Amino acid sequence: MILADSPSPASFLIDFGLAQQFRSPTTYIHTRYSSHCPVVGTLPFTSIVGQQGGTQSRRDDLESLAYTIIYSARGELPWTGCRNPRTVLQKKLGIPIKVLCQGLPTPFCDFITHVRSLEFDEMPDYRRLHSVLLLCLETVTDQCIKAPPSVCVPVSAKRTPVVSDRV
């Protein structure tokens, strides 16, 4: 979606069709990991762990977001033409991050490196990831970007940031 009244075009990517809770709403205990889950999502954008049959968590959502950004910027992923799930997985596992991010601002490598370093139940450093994306935008536009206040939601251990007033 592009907002016509915003100072610059903004895209919002929202898909709750496959959403599930990653922790109990009453106890805040994280879901358990299993290595025997069905693959969920569109193959080219599915995380490595998700494609291997692992329970998906926040890190996997962010890895899928990274693939979406790469695809949006370049029009393809290194495995775009592959139909065989094993071939896609091998390409995801084998491609160096610098090659995967080729053509994107250099800081984007940090985004993927951070996301792939996360443990199953580890909370992503959302401030860091947000800063990396802003830095990438500054690199592309060659101007300082200030995030709207609604995007700078404080992150606590009990909740994941959600931007609701811009949707």
Describe this structure in words.
This protein is mostly helical and 167 residues long. It has a domain at 43-141: Transferase(Phosphotransferase) domain 1 (Transferase(Phosphotransferase), domain 1, Orthogonal Bundle), CATH 1.10.510. The protein contains 6 helices and no strands. The model is unreliable at 149-167 (pLDDT under 50).
Number of helices: 6
CATH architecture assignment of the domain at 43-141: Orthogonal Bundle
Radius of gyration: 17 Å
Averaging pLDDT over every residue, what do you get? 82
Short description:
The chain has six helices and no strands. With about 170 residues, it is an all-alpha fold.
List keywords for this structure.
167 residues; Transferase(Phosphotransferase), domain 1; mainly alpha; globular; single chain; disordered C terminus
Element layout with pairings:
Blueprint: H1 48-51, H2 58-74, H3 85-94, H4 97-100, H5 108-117, H6 126-141
Helix pairs in contact: 2-5, 5-6
